[in-house]
Amino acid sequence: MNKSMVQLITSVLLLATVLVTGVEVYAQSIVENKSLYKAPFATHSPNVDGVADDPVWAKAEWKPIENVLIGDNLTPEDFSGRMKVVWDSSALYLLVEIVDDVLSDVYADPLVHYWDDEALEIFIDEDASGGDHQYNHSAFAYHVALDNQVVDSGPDKQAHLYNHHLTSAWRRNKTSTVWEVKLKVYADGYVDGDKKIKPVKLVKGKRLGFMLAYCDNDGGESREHFIASEDIVAVNGDRNRGWITADVFGVLELVK
To answer: How far is it, in rounded angstroms, from Cα 13 to Cα 15?
Structure first.
């Protein structure tokens, strides 16, 4: 091999290194521009009963739910919220503490105006790939109602129940409402009605797109406020973008 050939190969390898490094830096910058929440491993599955007394919750840090995406004049007495997340190989577990002066379920049909009733909303993107998910399952926007019905829109642009994806329970005490949720995570290959599709197995180091929000209805026909764990930049004046694109989600990292 002559000297010129060696120089050519060396140049190609250097260029490849620069390109790969550039991709890595770009990928890191994307994560750095999002909030990163680290969920610790659960040595045992917490009991989903709306009572926050399981020792496993002590391992996780609180993350506030404080970004008002819809509505104004929100006071701490009207609403304040925070949440924790832990995981095991089969599911994510959420503990959510909500202070809300009024809980309201106006629409009896779980598939009608489900976003206007009081609801916990869990956004999850299994591979943290972002992108449009409005009418596909590259990500999910689970609306968990007071009757524990779980709703999201499907590829047919219709609302569907996804009660088999998660288990939830809530209880109201003197100071707050406590929600506990067990959420099985499905990949973007999920197909409605296909019972053969199984949730993914969760592992240490996995990163998921994640956001949690709350629909606050004080008894009217529509929600007064929509409050999220992520701050979203408005597009044409609209900050309610989570149900359309997973690009606005934060990052949930599974750690030991």
So the answer is: 5
